[in-house]
Design goal:
This protein has 513 residues and is an alpha+beta fold. It contains 14 helices and 18 strands. A hairpin with a 2-residue loop joins strand 17 and strand 18.
């Protein structure tokens, strides 16, 4: 018996069947009863869970009517019959297989009484365009004239719904050559528009052979949405899994083999944003890309500060052997009311702090005052292994560089700030490679300046709360990305949307003369 998982938000069955172009995947064998290769699967939770999830979300965002929409929509689609014969406790979905060179979609509706469910859909508008066939305790929906060749979908569907409420998975490496060629032709048609957007950037055209090879090395691509009531969070997650032995799979298998050495520095005030990245640079192709980065920049017209990054910072990161980066944005508590100025701290891992400081001094002396209104003051202080150097941007403020043995921090400060202390770091043992971004809405929106007056009034009235989190982590032969919002953030988003809607001008009525 299937164990019931946490409730999560989903869409209705009809919506799911239209989402075959979306992306999500899971690592599951093809248990479909068909010899045709499976190239895509779409699935959502059972209808009973959909009801609960819509009710949960509707109550959270102040739209209780949402709880009744699944049944209302079902009555509309079936002409008032409802979903008679539907098993409301099993997932709903579709599977796309390839027969010859053509994709064939099979939609699956779980049934307690397949024939009754088929009769329920007898009068729907598109009924004449599809075949509906009873197969065990499922109703299989196929294009008109196409017999059902898949009759055991449960394992493929639950490989998605056991983790997510709604998801799609594709298997690019299984695409037949004709479908790959059609996809590549579509990419070529999009390229001219991309070149117009990029302008004079030195970007080469699309190499069909490279793209084709990338598809061949991508075993599965996944994308999905879920809300877990136990943790009061909603998240979107994607996963990409590469074939065993290929370059991408080898790279991601080792990208997380690094112990983070940087910590987010403590700041005075209310932290709004925190960023942490730790990724090992040990793949040959990536090292070649980093080494070639200065050559790419050499084709562009750069400012002196960009040249600084190219000639000094990038080589230090490369020699360090890992890309480690931390950032923190905080809103100081002692700022004038209504004019909060964020305090920003950035940190990177470097190979040799002493060499970094000397190269920085040589670079500044070499540009001979061509840095505009910036002025450098070197070796203004030392403390606990850190040397301090100021970049003054009078009258706006200054950026202080704190350079240690294996790290460098840049901190925004007031021009008259005169205290220099070694960077105090907060222990963040919960962080695991590759990347994490945490955003707290209350201090972030308190620190945003320049909002239109009406918008600022709406934000202030709503008292924003909640957190957003982005997590990038390595998985077996691949990488996963998850964006999470807690219930307070979802609630604020819903009420903010309603508030913005009230500010929109009314649509003028059309008067028929």
């Amino acid at each position: 018996m299937k164990q019931r998982k946490p409730n999560r938000i989903s869409c209705t069955a009809a919506t799911i069947l239209l989402l075959s172009t979306s992306w999500f995947s899971a690592q599951a064998d093809d248990q479909t009863g068909s010899s045709a290769p499976i190239v895509g699967v779409v699935a959502c939770d059972s209808f009973a869970e959909i009801r609960e999830q819509c009710a949960w979300l509707g109550g959270l965002i102040g739209f209780p009517v949402l709880g009744g929409l699944p049944d209302t929509y079902a009555m509309m689609v079936t002409g008032g019959k409802g979903l008679q014969g539907l098993d409301i406790n099993r997932p709903i979905g579709a599977i796309v297989a390839v027969q010859g060179d053509a994709p064939v979609a099979h939609g699956f509706l779980p049934a307690t009484d397949p024939q009754t469910l088929i009769d329920t859909f007898a009068d729907i508008p598109f009924r004449s365009m599809v075949e509906m066939t009873a197969a065990g305790d499922w109703v299989v929906v196929t294009p008109l004239g196409q017999p059902a060749t898949i009759n055991e979908p449960l394992d493929m569907l639950t490989s998605i719904t056991s983790h997510l409420s709604i998801g799609v998975k594709l298997f690019p490496s299984r695409l037949p050559d004709s479908m790959k060629e059609s996809l590549l032709d579509g990419v070529e048609q999009v390229e001219p528009a991309g070149q117009q957007i990029l302008g004079e950037l030195p970007v080469t055209g699309v190499d069909k052979d490279i793209v084709s090879e990338a598809l061949a090395q991508t075993e599965a691509v996944l994308f999905g949405l879920a809300i877990e009531k136990k943790t009061d969070k909603i998240f979107i997650e994607s996963r990409t899994i590469f074939t065993d032995g290929g370059v991408p799979g080898t790279f991601w298998a080792t990208a997380g083999d690094v112990t983070p050495s940087l910590r987010v520095p403590l700041q005075e005030g209310d932290e709004a944003i925190r960023v942490q990245i730790a990724q090992k640079l040990n793949d040959v192709t990536q090292l070649e890309d980093i080494e070639g980065f200065p050559a790419v920049l050499g084709q562009m017209k750069l400012t002196e500060l960009q040249n600084l990054m190219k000639e000094i910072v990038a080589p230090q990161i490369l020699e360090f052997g890992a890309f480690e980066f931390v950032a923190s944005v905080a809103i100081p508590e002692d700022q004038a009311e209504g004019e909060p100025v964020p305090s920003i701290v950035l940190g990177i891992g470097i190979a040799d702090g002493n060499a970094m400081a000397e190269k920085l001094k040589g670079f500044v002396n070499g540009v001979n005052g061509s840095l505009g209104n910036l002025s450098f003051e070197f070796d203004v202080a030392e403390d606990n292994g850190f040397s301090f150097h100021d970049i003054v941007m009078a009258p706006l403020g200054k950026v202080t560089l704190a350079i240690g043995e294996k790290s460098m921090y840049a901190m925004t400060r007031a021009v008259d700030a005169s205290e220099y202390e070694a960077v105090a770091s907060e222990q963040t043992d919960q962080f695991q490679p590759i990347a994490a971004v945490d955003v707290r809405l209350e201090p972030l929106l308190d620190g945003v300046a320049g909002l239109p007056p009406q918008m600022a009034m709406v934000v202030e009235k709503l008292e924003p709360q909640g957190e957003l989190n982005l997590l990038v982590r390595p998985i077996t032969r691949g990488v996963a990305v998850r964006l999470t919002a807690d219930s307070e953030a979802v609630e604020f988003g819903g009420t903010l949307g309603s508030g913005i809607f009230t500010l929109m001008p009314p649509v003028p009525a059309v008067i028929n003369e």
